[in-house]
Amino acid sequence: MTEHHGNDAEHANEGAEHAPDENPSTEELEEPSVAKEPGEEPKAPEQKDEEPSHQAVGIGVIDDGTSPGAP
Q1: Can you list the alpha helix ranges (DSSP code H) found in 1-71?
Q2: Torsion of CA 55, 56, 58, 63, to 10 degrees
Q3: Residue 15: beta bridge partners?
Q4: More confident residue, 8 or 66
Q5: What are the DSSP E strand ranges found in the chain?
Q6: Cα dist. 35→9, 30, 42, 64 in Å?
Q7: Which are the contacts of 54, defined by CB distance < 8 A and separation ≥ 6?
Q8: Count of CB atoms within 10 A of residue 56's CB?
Q9: Is the dihedral of CA 8, 12, 15, 18 positive or negative?
Q10: CA distance 52 to 62
Q11: Where is the composition biased (Basic and acidic residues) (predicted)?
Q12: Structural contact between residues 61 and 54, judged by C-beta atoms closer than 8 angstroms
């Protein structure tokens, strides 16, 4: 364990001098957003099966044999 001499101010900014300046400049803040419009966002593919091929019971799963790879 290291000794503590009560000089917290001396160690208050430890590591801060090594941290890069992460605040954006005013010019960067004034640039328009590159986020896509809601109509341009990707959509998930439509589900073919309405029901899952397994039955959840409690916290476990019982395979009914219809899922791909079932013996």
Answers
A1: 8-11, 26-30
A2: 60
A3: none
A4: 66
A5: 54-57, 60-63
A6: 42, 14, 12, 43
A7: 61, 62, 63, 64, 67
A8: 9
A9: negative
A10: 12
A11: 1-21, 33-53
A12: yes
Paired tokens of 40:
């341009």
Does this model's pTM top 0.70? no
Selection from 40, 68, 42, 71 nearest residue 54 by Cα? 68
Structure tokens at 47: 């589900």
| Residue 38 three-state SS | helix
What count of other Cβ atoms lies within 10 Å of the Cβ of residue 54? Answer: 14
What is the pLDDT at residue 47?
A: 72
Mean pLDDT of 39-63: 72
Angle at 51 between CA 49 and CA 53, to 5 degrees: 90
25-50 pLDDT tens trace: 888 777 777 776 777 777 777 777 66
Cα–chain center distance at 60: 27
